[in-house]
């Protein structure tokens, strides 16, 4: 959908859902958004119009969760436009907690990770009958890694081989958020707590939903010495997933993420940082045997 078409859908939703536009709308590469007031009950909300298929699928998944662990969708239309409850303004985000953690315990970073794991677990506990249309199987999600591995080899080839093994033997299949990180779990007030937003909408092993926590919220945090193994252990303890299996999925995920960025920017910057995390996971697995 073009930006112009997205704006047209946005204004149609304002009329259909009896909304007052607060300020101007804004666009991202994937969505048109606007902050609004619902005239029916005077509450604030966000209208999000997807411009790409990935966001349209995510809208459907968000609605399917029915506010159970995720932001509540008040309304959704045939184009995937959604009217979503608005998070509270907060002085402290989960990213802030992780970034501003202090040694030696790095306690606030650990608190952020526990919160993210708890948010993901709530989503996974949602009844899995009748999953929403369009959710993407994990094997399809990993296709860019497989193609990059054939071209480049090295770490990409090892990550692709491991991903293939994991995908052939997936456990605890769930509808996945697909992008659980410090910016996608927000505070919605005391009554609602920490809730997820902006899902990708994947289908696969629940363990995969925890790997992105290990590569966020920023470079300094994810590459901090010993953080990977400490937080993999923490995630395992809180979620119940096997720590070594989580590390295997981390290698696969960092390979995929590096493949996405490598194709555009070469093997430097973010792609290189993701590979460093993957290499740390490989080393941790060698040391555990």
What fraction strand?
Answer: 15-25%
Quick one: biggest sheet? Answer: 6 strands, antiparallel
By CATH, the topology of the largest domain is Aminoglycoside 3'-phosphotransferase, Chain: A, domain 2
Q: Which regions have little confidence, pLDDT < 50, spanning 5+ residues?
A: none
CATH architecture descriptor of the largest domain = Alpha-Beta Complex
Q: How many helices does DSSP assign?
A: 11
Mind telling me the CATH class of the largest domain?
Alpha Beta
Give the beta-strand count: 11
Structural class: alpha+beta
Provide the domain count.
2
Q: What is the string of SSEs from the N terminus onward?
A: HEEEEHEEHHEHHHEEEEHHHH
Distance between the termini: 50 Å
Compute the gyration radius: what is it?
Answer: 19 Å
As a percent range, the share of helical residues equals 40-55%
In the CATH hierarchy, what is the superfamily of the largest domain? Aminoglycoside phosphotransferase (APH), C-terminal lobe
Keywords: Kinase, Transferase
InterPro entries: Kinase-like_dom_sf (IPR011009), NH2Glyco/OHUrea_AB-resist_kin (IPR006748)
Pfam families: APH_6_hur
GO molecular function, one term: aminoglycoside 6-kinase activity
